[in-house]
Amino acid sequence: MLKAGYKTTEFWLAVAAASLGAVIASGIVPTEGPWVQVAAMVEMALVAMGYTGARVNIKKSTGA
Q: Domain tally for the chain?
């Protein structure tokens, strides 16, 4: 049986990574130059796409 997304470890790790990226991208954490903030925004997008892609693959393989 497929667990709800919010009940998985992968979800909470993705939330933590995206939250950290958001904090860095927003400028709350002082960084050396704007490229760190750009990298944090790219990281947030990649984490979101990676988690979404993983859930889609799981749902396809289980037929949910």
A: 1
Q: Tokens 């997304």, residue? A: 5
Prediction pTM value = 0.78
Query: Which is nearest to 64 in space by CA: 3, 16, 14, 18?
Result: 3
The residues, any chain, with a CB within 8 Å of residue 44's CB and separated by 6 or more, are 17, 18, 21, 22, 25
Residue range 10-63, pLDDT digits in tens: 899 999 999 999 999 998 988 888 899 999 999 999 999 999 998 899 888 887
Task: Please list the alpha-helical segments (H only) found in the chain.
Answer: 9-26, 34-62
